[in-house]
Amino acid sequence: MSDAEVDLVNRDPNNLNDHVKVAFEDVLAEPEGAHSIDCVWKLSYKCFNCSKGICYNILTILCGIPLAFCWGCEFAMITFEHVWQITPCLRIYAIECGAMKKFFSTCLQCCLGPIMETCGLCFSNIVVKNS
């Protein structure tokens, strides 16, 4: 994905981080009857949002690119593991289980099938009458 394809407006299109959308109103609230002075409430609002924004920007500047690199490597390793190890192993397992299914199915049809069919014929002649 090139820079031209990066959506700079909607940076969470799949809503992966809805759980961390925190606004001032989600953290601080004064109940009825316990209100601070209006200027304190307004300055607290500005201080909260400003400090949250500055701190987040500093952390992203210091850690964002290295963490993006680490997560890119992690997902590359997971993709490699699935493509070159897990999926081929699952395919082998499915093939082997398919062969075992045919083997056991044939054994059951050859050995147990005639016995069950005979038992069915014997028991089919039983008639129960309620009196």
TrEMBL record:
It is found in: Cell membrane; Golgi apparatus membrane; Membrane, Caveola. InterPro entries: Caveolin. Keywords: Cell membrane, Golgi apparatus, Membrane. Pfam families: Caveolin (PF01146). Its main location: membrane. The keyword Cell inner membrane does not apply. It is a peripheral membrane protein. GO terms for cellular component: caveola; Golgi membrane. PANTHER family: CAVEOLIN, CAVEOLIN-2. Belongs to the caveolin family. May act as a scaffolding protein within caveolar membranes. Interacts directly with G-protein alpha subunits and can functionally regulate their activity. This is Caveolin. It comes from Batillaria attramentaria.
